[in-house]
Amino acid sequence: MHQIPPPAPSPLELDDPSPLPEAQALEATVARLIAQLGEDVTREGLQRTPARVARSLRFLTSGYAQDAQSVVRGALFRAEGAELVVVKGLEFYSLCEHHLLPFFGRVHIGYVPGEHILGLSKFARVVDVFARRLQVQERLTVQVADALEGVLRPRGVGVVVEASHLCMMMRGVQQQGSSTRTSVLRGVLGDPGVREEFLRAINTP
Length: 205
Ligand SMILES: Nc1nc2c(ncn2[C@@H]2O[C@H](COP(=O)(O)OP(=O)(O)OP(=O)(O)O)[C@@H](O)[C@H]2O)c(=O)[nH]1
Ligand SMILES: [Zn+2]
Known about the structure:
Oligomer: single chain
CATH topology of the largest domain: GTP Cyclohydrolase I, domain 2
Shape: elongated
CATH class of the largest domain: Alpha Beta
Subunit structure: Homopolymer.
Mean pLDDT: 92
EC number: 3.5.4.16
GO molecular function, one term: GTP binding
Bound molecules: guanosine-5'-triphosphate, zinc ion
Enzyme class: hydrolase
Family: Belongs to the GTP cyclohydrolase I family.
Low-confidence stretches: 7-14
């Protein structure tokens, strides 16, 4: 009888038995950072922390090694219509480039197809390519719109990002209730009728 093997863990989640020199350098940097915060890196709870943080940071910035073209490959299909398509509420987590603290929220995307439509899951994958980098919210919004425009050549595209920034919540101005909305509306998504339809779709629960 065949045993079903357990699913392989993602390479980024593995405990690397022989870390590459750059991974070791990152670990050493994290160890130095912890020491400079006045902590004892050799105490039991912290011994493996530099390796964990290095691994975690590599995952959280894994978007640098990806590009939107490869992510959508194979999921472009001939368009069946030319109506507005809205994919809303895509969750994302990113790191603010000023404080290296998380900002997170939802991305809403609308587009009016040209010759192609895109497999629905790929919108979330495109968002992750750009969210898993050191970012500002405005650039994230523009990069998602640029990427979709590049691969889909749509008649119009709209990207709205709503996010909470921990750098504004747990430090700095400490505005726990604040959130930020950024948007890019291009092509026919800029036309009043289509824009209204898109904004109504994303604002309706
Ligand atoms: N526009 C924009 N600003 C951001 C984003 N993330 C963080 N910031 C802001 O970047 C700015 C950095 O300002 P600085 O004055 O250099 O840094 P700071 O002294 O830590 O600022 P405070 O947060 O006000 O304490 C702050 O106003 C942050 O709120 C983002 O995604 N977009
Ligand atoms: Zn910040």
